[in-house]
Structure to design on (426 residues):
């Protein structure tokens, strides 16, 4: 397998960073194709923790070409701060390529993100307030600014002038501070100058790498249930994180995407508002939250916790073409007397395994569970499947049976070496 898509199969924060870093040890290229610094990908290397936001997780390996592709929205100021943070921690040798077609996030996108959240009332999404939604909205509305124009001072000034003529009207309508062209141009053209050496046609780069049969990893951000098209709309992000979006967001042909590795917690979490059928409150929810350190990487918000929802997971498999699973944070379930797994929903007295499309239906579904015996042993140092406790193995087999996806990797701790491999994927 030389082109592998890593996709979050739930509501984000499944451990995509850890697996990208793990598989990246054999990769030539690591690509982020969508989202921006709403992502927070944690990587633990020899006990040292790094939280990446917009930079791909292959950055620690000087041989890997790291690509930020056209489908991303990039906050130049934050990206440079992130890069400087890495450099100051010793990451001095790296290869980074940024698409000339990626869009840039400017301060007014962040202002508008906050303002729309305040105005939305019951439809408040609980966004990361990083300006992601307003930036993608400008892209679709054809008033966005792309990297290729950003790094050319004349072009940047022209596009900024045109964009501000519209955005300032929107900002004042909402009672927000407006911007002058000069203030943004003067500050941001400094960032543009620093970013310029990294900017290129990344689609062309990827085509060359594919021709050379290089090993390419696509590092998804967010997760299938946050997809703008297939997620729990409107409680979603503003891009599509699923495997099908990769060709569009990276500028490669769809035929190259044959394998999608779904990164999947052994339970579910969700940060922000929106439907979450298997959510659990109380003692067990708190146990999982504390043991799994389930607090947002970006916003530090406590993550909502739930049992593994195989209706949602099956739905993600179908829309994304997930054909392998990496089961994450399995160690966290250790110590629970019983583990529940949702296999169907009851909706208005009928049993269904279809994932409903409306908030109204999702608010009425009642998850149907299989209850399995838990395991007490600490599994965080186990290196092979056979050494896992019997009940842990039974739980994995049940997931495979309910989802018809092969579990190819099992993660039992945040570090690289806390990974059990059942099938070598790259
Ligand atoms: P991402 O956004 O999908 O990359 O995931 P995050 O980094 O936001 O959240 C996953 C969290 O789980 C991070 O703190 C990881 O260090 C941690 N993690 C990853 N795999 C494991 C695991 O198998 N066990 C435990 N206990 N923690 C893990
Ligand atoms: P990673 O890549 C978890 C959630 C936000 C909010 C919704 C919309 O680390 O898995 P946005 O700022 O994108 O407009 O917010 O999506 N969200 C995430 N949740 N992990 C993420 O990324 C997320 N990125 C966005 O909490 O509910
Ligand atoms: Mg995260």
């Amino acid at each position: 397998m030389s082109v592998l898509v890593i996709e979050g199969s739930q509501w984000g924060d499944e451990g995509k960073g850890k697996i990208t870093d793990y598989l990246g040890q054999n990769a030539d290229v690591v690509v982020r194709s969508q989202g921006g610094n709403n992502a927070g990908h944690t990587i633990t290397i020899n006990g040292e923790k790094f939280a990446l936001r917009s930079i791909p997780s292959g950055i620690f390996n000087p041989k890997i070409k790291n690509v930020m592709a056209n489908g991303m929205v990039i906050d130049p100021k934050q990206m440079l701060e992130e890069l400087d943070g890495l450099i100051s921690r010793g990451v001095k040798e790296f290869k980074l390529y940024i698409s000339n077609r990626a869009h840039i996030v400017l301060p007014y996108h962040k202002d508008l993100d906050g303002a729309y959240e305040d105005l939305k009332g019951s439809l408040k999404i609980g966004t990361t307030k990083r300006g992601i939604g307003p930036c993608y909205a400008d892209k679709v509305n054809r008033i966005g600014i792309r990297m290729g124009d950003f790094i050319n001072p004349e072009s940047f000034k022209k596009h900024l002038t045109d964009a501000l003529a519209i955005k300032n009207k929107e900002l004042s309508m909402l009672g927000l501070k407006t911007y002058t062209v000069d203030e943004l141009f003067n500050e941001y053209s400094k960032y543009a100058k620093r970013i310029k050496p990294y900017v290129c046609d990344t689609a062309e780069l990827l085509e060359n790498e594919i021709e050379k049969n290089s090993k390419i990893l696509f590092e998804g951000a967010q997760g299938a249930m946050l997809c703008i098209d297939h997620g729990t709309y409107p409680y979603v992000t503003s891009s599509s994180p699923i495997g099908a979006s990769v060709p569009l967001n990276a500028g490669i042909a769809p035929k190259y995407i044959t394998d999608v590795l779904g990164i999947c917690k052994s339970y579910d979490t969700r940060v922000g508002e929106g439907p979450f059928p298997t959510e659990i409150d109380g003692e067990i929810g708190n146990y999982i939250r504390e043991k799994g350190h389930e607090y947002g990487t970006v916003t530090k918000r406590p993550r909502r916790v739930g049992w593994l929802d195989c209706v949602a997971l099956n739905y993600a498999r179908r829309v994304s073409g997930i054909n392998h699973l990496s089961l994450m944070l399995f160690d966290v379930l250790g110590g629970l007397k019983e583990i529940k797994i949702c296999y169907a929903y009851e909706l208005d007295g009928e049993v269904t395994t279809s994932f409903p499309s409306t908030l109204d239906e999702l608010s009425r579904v009642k998850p149907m569970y299989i209850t399995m015996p838990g395991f007490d042993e600490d599994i965080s140092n186990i290196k092979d499947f056979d050494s896992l406790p019997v009940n842990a193995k039974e739980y994995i087999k049940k997931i495979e049976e309910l989802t018809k996806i092969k579990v190819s990797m099992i993660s039992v701790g945040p570090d690289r070496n806390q990974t059990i491999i059942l099938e070598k994927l790259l």
Summary: Residues 12-13, 39-41, 297 surround magnesium ion (ligand 3) (CB under 6 Å).
